[in-house]
Design brief:
With 552 residues, the chain is α/β, with parallel strands linked by helices. It is 31% helix and 24% strand. The chain is globular. It starts with 7 loop residues before the first helix and ends in a 7-residue tail after the last helix.
Length: 552
């Protein structure tokens, strides 16, 4: 291609050096003695130089296990220091880190392992039982299993090792680089809910990481003097990329770890560590506000509260602005694309309830809905704040528009550089979008996405069940709770039997287990025998009010 200048050096430099890891290493040089990571639960702290040294030790240990270019390291970790080490270290040897949800069941973890074939799995102590079971269930056997919290008195099985034993005696110096970096290399793989027991695996390349960091840095804005804490799990895109490992370590700020959400503990940490940006769901903000009203803490350090995962209601927003901070940000997006629209402090509380306008480098549109095909990206509904269409997202800087080894889902979701979300909404003349439903039947419970078909598949494995349908009912604490309607194969089937089966099956993680059950003679079906989830949802809400749904 003809240029007006010699572009060889630019291309070589940009494509091979404009990486997230190089951004982190710049901060090691610039801010070596500044705090990078704080773990209040163990009263531990790492500055940038020490954090890099920890990551180098892990990188050398991985290299000794022959982990290299494009190999997979799986992290099944809570918000612990080892999560942060594992987020960084595999990049130093060219490997990919798969961030798995540690709340998954043993069967789901086994399927992830079979799909991703990690050489090394790092896991936290609280899921010890699930990991042991997953190892038995998985047909693929990782080389190494690393326990990242000590369990006193536990005899580790063959192939398992405590984290400190794994990295000890390894060099704190950077490992020799024996491969070329490229900005299109996959460096992180995230997991999002799928219609089956196998989550969809989302590849994130190096330039996605850099530009996702830039997005948060630009929109807050975030700088090297900030202190961030995320109240959500870091394995989520909204956990690691919003006030988590990705932007915080890229800009040279400090990350405070919150292992489990508690409103009192969170507010204490804000005061103690002078936290400037706090990220969480609207429900966690509500709990913070209640606690702050009863026993106020000094929140003067807060420059902003960042929330996502659900719309922010106007009355709640006004309350949070008064009690917590005058600066609230509300982001909307997906695991595949990070956030793509944003409500800034100047939008609130006026636009509370909407998901806002497009982020600076992104474009969000509302297009028409057809039964037999996708709308073209330019086939948009009117900006009348009334006509409903499907929300689609354009953000090549933050998405690879792909799933790992899942061509069918990839074709269904991505089209002509846009992601088709299945979210339904409308927009106004400012192009501010409001979400009001979904094309599919996905349930969002306590911030986790759950597909009814996966839960149905698991329940139908019970030999006393002929068929079932799963839907959502309103739940004050979770937003939505899961309800199962079951046709018995055996007349002795009870709600307790269903509860016990869902508790014991290795194919349902805790957040996917129904909280409500009803044994029925029939299910709502179309003339062609398809399950009518929308009809069941209406029935379930009425049944809940009438006391017809049972627990155990």
């Amino acid at each position: 291609m003809n240029r007006t200048y010699n572009d060889k050096m630019f291309i070589e430099t940009f494509e091979h050096e404009y990486t997230w890891l190089n951004g982190f290493l710049r901060n090691v040089r610039r801010y070596g003695n500044r705090p990078a990571l704080i773990d209040p639960s163990t009263d531990s702290e790492w500055n940038y130089r020490e954090l890099d040294a920890e990551c180098n030790m892990l990188a050398h240990a991985l290299k000794d296990d022959k982990v290299g270019k494009n190999d997979v390291v799986m992290s099944v970790l809570n918000n612990c220091p080892e999560f942060c080490f594992t987020y960084i270290a595999p990049r130093k040897v060219g490997a990919i880190v798969t961030l798995a949800n540690y709340k998954l069941s043993a069967g789901e973890i086994a399927k992830l392992i079979e799909h991703n074939e990690p050489k090394v799995v790092l896991y936290c102590a609280e899921i010890w039982d699930n990991i042991v079971e997953a190892e038995k269930l998985s047909s693929f056997k990782p080389l190494r299993w690393i326990l990242c919290d000590n369990l006193d008195g536990v005899d580790l099985p063959l192939g398992h090792i405590h984290y400190r034993d794994y990295v000890k005696n390894h060099s704190e110096e950077a490992p020799a680089k024996d491969f070329p970096h490229h900005i299109y290399d996959e460096v992180v793989r995230m997991c999002t809910s799928g219609t089956s027991a196998l989550p969809k695996n989302v590849p994130i390349n190096d330039i996605n990481e850099v530009l996702s960091a830039h997005d948060a840095i630009m929109h807050y804005p975030l700088n090297c003097l900030d202190v961030c804490m995320n109240m959500t799990p870091l394995f989520h895109r909204g956990g690691s990329h919003s006030g988590g490992t990705c932007p915080t370590f890229y800009v040279g700020a400090c990350l405070v770890l919150l292992r489990a959400f508690s409103p009192r503990v969170t507010l204490n940490y804000v005061e103690k560590y002078k936290i400037t940006f706090l990220t969480g769901s609207p429900s966690s903000l509500e709990m913070l506000a209640r606690t702050q009203e009863r026993d106020p803490q000094d929140l003067s350090s807060l420059k902003g509260l960042v929330t996502m995962g659900a719309p922010l209601e106007k009355a709640a927003c006004e309350r949070f602005l008064k009690i917590l901070t005058p600066n609230i940000f509300n982001g909307y997006g997906t695991t595949e694309t990070f956030w793509n629209s944003f409500l800034r402090p100047y939008d609130l509380p006026e636009y509370a309830g909407a998901v806002g306008g497009s982020c600076t480098d992104d474009e969000v549109r509302v297009v028409k809905v057809y039964e037999d095909r996708k709308a073209e990206p330019d086939d948009m509904v009117p900006t009348d704040n009334e006509t409903v269409g499907e929300v689609i997202l354009h953000c090549p800087g933050k998405s690879t528009y792909s799933y790992y080894k899942n061509d069918e889902e990839q074709k269904a979701k991505f089209y002509k550089g846009w992601m088709y979300t299945n979210d339904l909404g409308f927009w106004d003349e400012r192009l501010y979008v409001t979400i009001n439903g979904r094309k599919d039947d996905m349930i969002i419970s306590a911030g986790e996405n759950v597909y009814p078909t996966q839960v149905e598949e698991a329940i139908n494995e019970f030999d006393k069940v002929a068929d079932c349908m799963v839907t959502a009912v309103p739940d004050e604490a979770r937003g939505q709770a899961i309800a199962a309607y079951v046709i018995p194969k055996d007349d002795t089937l009870t709600v307790k039997d269903l509860f016990d089966f869902c508790l014991e099956t290795p194919m349902l993680s805790s957040y996917k287990r129904p909280r409500w059950y009803k044994i029925v003679d029939s299910l709502p079906l179309t003339a062609t025998g398809k399950k009518m989830h929308y009809a069941l949802k209406q029935q379930a809400e009425k049944d809940l009010k009438d006391g017809l749904l049972k627990r155990k």
